[in-house]
Amino acid sequence: MSDSQPSTQRPATISDVAREAGTGKTSVSRYLNGETHVLSADLRQRIETAIARLNYRPNQMARGLKRGRNRLLGMLAADLTNPYTVEVLQGVEAACHALGYMPLICHAANEVEMERRFLQLLTTYRVEGLIVNALGAEEDVLRPLRGAGIPAVLVDRTVEGFEADLIGLDNTDAIETAIAHLVASGFDAVHFVVQPFERVSSRRLREAAFRAALGARGLPVPPTVVLDLNEPAAVGAALADLDARIDDATRRGVRAALFAANAPVALAIARHLRARFGAAWQEKAALLSIDDP
């Protein structure tokens, strides 16, 4: 084995490792690819020692090109400020780590055009799979994935016309369970609050299930309150609308409940109610939410 290290002007190569370990590049390649069962214990130790001594780092992109696989999984997230999305991301990262994949995360920041651009970019990276939490994606944007042979899984939201496995909540059952709980608890005035619908399937499904659940019980179905968290003026108007509804319920002697379609909406409502009514705001209105705020 050589006592000298390669020049510090360049990173160590697989040839350097082979020379340091006193073996050929094929054996080192087998070691790096996990085929250690075909190597003797002594050779495995020499290669491991050489890698550590030379601080060798495999060129994953080059290896991916050679094998036709790059071990990259793309994830497109609509909104990383949503606690639900953060939990999903943590699960994706843990699963990728366990299976030897590297997640490539793209944040669309609730921008439809950004979502479209990231989907095109991930296709050019030849990711081995794609996890999509869509905001406004249409089937024509996702269609190139099929042409490129990239499997896709949708999270929480469907895309009309695009067939793929979906991991998400049973929205109808969740809403039905929630309304049953509120009605059994004596709430007579229940108001649904949601972010702008756009093309987000889960928001529309939840509103439809909400209206159906109230209607099936013969309860009034108030107009949906749309809370656009990206528009301060619109937020103020929507919260003022909720204030008026709560005040009306108080005057009529009925119990009011606010049903938030997701965690960001619930957090905005909770902050507003606390600012208006103080720590005892729950005495004025109940707050129920899909997802954990």
Structure description:
Keywords: DNA-binding, Transcription, Transcription regulation. One of its GO terms (molecular function) is transcription cis-regulatory region binding. It comes from Burkholderia territorii. The protein is of the alpha/beta class and about 290 residues long. It folds into 3 domains: about 15-60, 434 Repressor (Amino-terminal Domain) (Orthogonal Bundle), CATH 1.10.260; about 65-165, 3-Layer(aba) Sandwich (Rossmann fold); about 170-290, Response regulator (Rossmann fold, 3-Layer(aba) Sandwich), CATH 3.40.50.2300. Helix content is about 50%, strand content about 15%. The chain is built from 11 helices and 9 strands. The chain has helices at about 15-20, 25-30, 40-55, 60-65, 85-100, 110-125, 140-145, 170-185, 200-215, 230-250, 265-275, and strands at about 70-75, 100-105, 130, 150-155, 165, 190-195, 225, 255-260, 285-290. The chain has a 5-stranded parallel β-sheet with strand order 2-1-3-4-5, sandwiched between helices. Strand 8, helix 11 and strand 9 form a beta-alpha-beta unit. Helix 1 packs across helix 2, helix 1 (about 15-20) crosses helix 3 and helix 6 (about 110-125) packs parallel to helix 7 (about 140-145). The radius of gyration is 27 Å and the shape is elongated.
